[in-house]
C-alpha cells in the first residue's frame, strides 16, 4: 500500500497518521492527525452523521488519533474514535514518569502547550481534559479486525463483533500493539514483558533486555 499526498493511501479515502507513517515524534503525530482531517474536510460537502454512516472513523487514540478527532470536531464532522487499549495509545505503554515531549506542539481546539517538558502522566491528563471538554468520546478496548470498502463508504469490524461505517478512515494505529516475537521457547512466560511500565518494580533483580534500539537502551539504563 503506497502513501500519496496528505498521507492518503492507494485506497481513496483511507489515510494514515502518526507512527504508522514512520514518524514517531508526538508533534509530528499531532500535525499529521490535523492535516489528514483538514484534507477530508476540504473534500466533503456534507457534515454530520447520515443514518449509520459517520464522516470519519479514526482507529487509534494516541496523539495522531486524538488530534484527528479534535480537528473533526473543529470542522463539524461526525467521527468515532476506537482504540484497542484506551486514550493515549502508544503513550500508555511508556514507563511511568517518562518525559515524553520536549518540543513545542499545538493541540487542535486547545492551542500551544505552554511547558517545555511533559511527563507521560501530565500529557495523558491534558489529553483527557481536552477530549472531555470537546466531547470526543473514545471507544476503548475495541481492536480493529477488518476494514472493507463498500459502495461509497468504509466498514470497520471490531474484535467485539460490532461494525461501524464511515465515509473516510484514518488509521492512527501506532506500532506497539503487536510486539515482535522471537519464536523461542519461554517467551510466553509471565516474566517476559514487551513494555517496561515501571522500572522500580525490578529493583535488585537480574534483567535481560533484548534489543539495541532507543527503547532497549532506555530500559537498561
Topology order in helix (H) and strand (E) letters: EHEHEEEEEHEEEEH
Largest sheet: 7 strands, mixed
The whole-number mean of residue pLDDT values reads 87
Percent of sequence in beta strands: 15-25%
What gross morphology would you assign? Answer: globular
Low-confidence stretches: none
**Count of helical segments?**
4
Q: Distance N terminus to C terminus?
A: 38 Å
Radius of gyration: 18 Å
Helix content: 10-25%
Descriptive account of the structure:
By secondary structure, the protein is of the alpha/beta class. Helix content is 23%, strand content 21%. It has helices at residues 26-43, 63-74, 120-133, 214-220; strands at 14-16, 53-59, 79-83, 99-101, 106-107, 111-112, 118-119, 138-140, 144-149, 154-158, 163-171. The strands form 3 sheets. Strands 1, 2, 3, 8, 9, 10 and 11 form a 7-stranded mixed β-sheet that branches. The protein has a two-stranded antiparallel ribbon with strand order 4-7. Strand 10 and strand 11 (163-171) form a beta hairpin.
Amino acid at each position: 500500500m503506497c502513501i500519496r499526498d496528505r498521507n492518503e493511501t492507494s485506497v481513496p479515502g483511507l489515510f494514515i497518521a502518526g507512527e504508522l507513517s514512520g514518524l514517531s515524534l508526538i508533534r509530528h503525530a499531532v500535525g499529521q492527525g490535523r492535516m489528514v482531517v483538514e484534507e477530508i474536510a476540504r473534500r466533503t460537502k456534507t457534515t454530520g452523521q447520515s443514518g449509520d454512516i459517520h464522516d470519519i472513523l479514526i482507529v487509534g487514540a494516541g496523539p495522531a488519533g486524538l488530534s484527528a478527532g479534535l480537528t473533526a470536531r473543529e470542522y463539524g464532522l461526525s467521527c468515532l474514535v476506537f482504540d484497542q487499549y484506551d486514550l493515549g495509545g502508544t503513550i500508555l505503554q511508556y514507563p511511568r514518569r517518562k518525559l515524553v515531549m520536549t518540543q513545542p506542539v499545538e493541540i487542535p481546539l486547545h492551542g500551544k502547550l505552554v511547558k517545555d517538558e511533559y511527563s507521560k502522566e501530565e500529557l495523558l491528563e491534558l489529553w483527557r481534559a481536552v477530549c472531555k471538554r470537546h466531547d470526543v468520546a473514545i471507544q476503548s478496548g475495541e481492536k480493529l479486525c477488518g476494514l472493507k470498502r463498500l459502495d461509497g463508504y468504509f466498514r470497520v469490524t471490531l474484535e467485539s463483533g460490532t461494525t461501524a461505517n464511515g465515509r473516510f478512515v484514518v488509521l492512527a494505529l501506532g506500532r506497539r500493539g503487536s510486539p515482535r516475537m522471537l519464536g523461542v521457547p519461554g517467551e510466553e512466560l509471565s516474566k517476559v514483558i514487551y513494555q517496561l511500565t515501571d522500572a522500580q518494580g525490578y529493583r535488585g533483580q537480574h534483567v535481560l533486555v533484548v534489543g539495541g534500539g532507543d527503547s532497549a537502551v532506555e530500559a537498561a539504563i
